Amino acid sequence: MPSIPPLDELIRDALVVSLPLSTRFRGVDTREAMLLRGPAGWTEFSPFLEYDDAEASAWLAGAIDFGWNEAPQPLRDRVLVNATVPAVAADRVGDVLARFDGCRTAKVKVAERGQVLADDVARVRAVRAAMGPEGRVRIDANGAWNVDEAEHALHALAEFDLEYVEQPCASIPEMAELRARIRYMDIPVAADESVRKAADPLAVARAGAADILVVKAQPLGGVHRALQLVAEAGLPAVVSSALDTSIGLSMGVALAAALPTLDFDCGLGTSALFVDDVAAPALAPQGGALAVGRIQPDAAALAARAASADRRAWWLDRIARCYAVLDSVS
């Protein structure tokens, strides 16, 4: 691993923000993130709160890569993105989609804890109706189904002409078995958690357990590392966010812009799920796309959404622990 800058340099301009969500997502109503300023520009360290230091240290490597290195040469100046529909009631779908200007693709969360398949069917039906026959609809189960449940659910949802199903099952063997079972249905399988949370992110490709990789710059250790992984996997990739601020989204856009091919709309429009962001305007979909380039935070937005002193101290302690993990292997 390349050498890393000193910790005091990393945190010299560190800011911690707390951003409210317009719709509950991943079980949270507020997203916390730490923003860092490196010689290449602003970057983001925002592993989810429940992640341990070993997993979160990869996110720190990603933040350092983007803030302390120049981004790869972009091959495109804008990146098409999808709308993201949380596990809301069907009658709220229209309000959610209205936040994503011009997006031709929608990713729909399914298999939410406490809900049933009928809720998923109603939600996906509403999305398909709103998107029209030419729209693209994909679903994301976040690994919540076993193989039988996934096959049953896909039978129920197939009528909505799914672009693909993302992480239907948790394990790679389950993903491979499901992919074999549903081959006749012509629904591709995309891997997310099997890539970003795996000790070996290429294992899912070697096992023939996915048709598509979902890659996220920060959790995979940065833009350059993610580009290398996609090249080694030899599968088409979708770049997605981890509910980042506009700063973190610009990291994902840099990755998407540098991929040799980009056949799918990317999951980078998620600033539309925030009430406020750290940039003014936020890096949000315009005509279904995001512009490529660095983002500068807005001073007024930072002041309005600054986290409490206790939460800032928590993040400073966390980054120090994750730094120690990275330093031990550098």
Descriptive report:
The chain has 2 domains: 7-71 and 300-329, Enolase-like, N-terminal domain (Enolase-like, domain 1); 78-298, TIM Barrel, CATH 3.20.20. Helix content is 36%, strand content 18%. The protein contains 12 helices and 12 strands. The protein has helices at residues 7-10, 53-68, 93-97, 117-131, 147-157, 172-181, 193-196, 203-206, 223-233, 246-258, 299-304, 309-329; strands spanning 15-25, 28-38, 41-45, 78-80, 83-85, 105-109, 136-140, 162-166, 189-191, 212-215, 237-239, 289-291. Strands 5-6-7-8-9-10-11 form a 7-stranded parallel β-sheet. Strands 1-2-3 form a 3-stranded antiparallel β-sheet, with helices on both faces. The longest helix is centred in the C-terminal third of the chain and has 21 residues, at 309-329. The relative contact order is 0.18.
* CATH classification, class level of the largest domain: Alpha Beta
Q: How many domains?
A: 2
Distance between the termini: 5 Å
Number of helices: 12
Shape: globular
What ranges have pLDDT less than 50 throughout 5 or more consecutive residues?
A: none
Q: Per CATH, which architecture of the largest domain?
A: Alpha-Beta Barrel
Biggest sheet details: 7 strands, parallel
% residues in beta strands = 15-25%
Average pLDDT reading: 96
Helix-strand string:
HEEEHEEHEHEHEHEHHEHEHEHH
| Widest beta sheet: strand line-up | 5-6-7-8-9-10-11
- Evaluate the radius of gyration: 19 Å
Oligomer: single chain
Helicity level: 25-40%
CATH superfamily of the largest domain: Enolase-like C-terminal domain
Structural class: alpha/beta
Write down the CATH topology of the largest domain.
TIM Barrel
**How many runs of DSSP E, i.e. beta strands?**
12
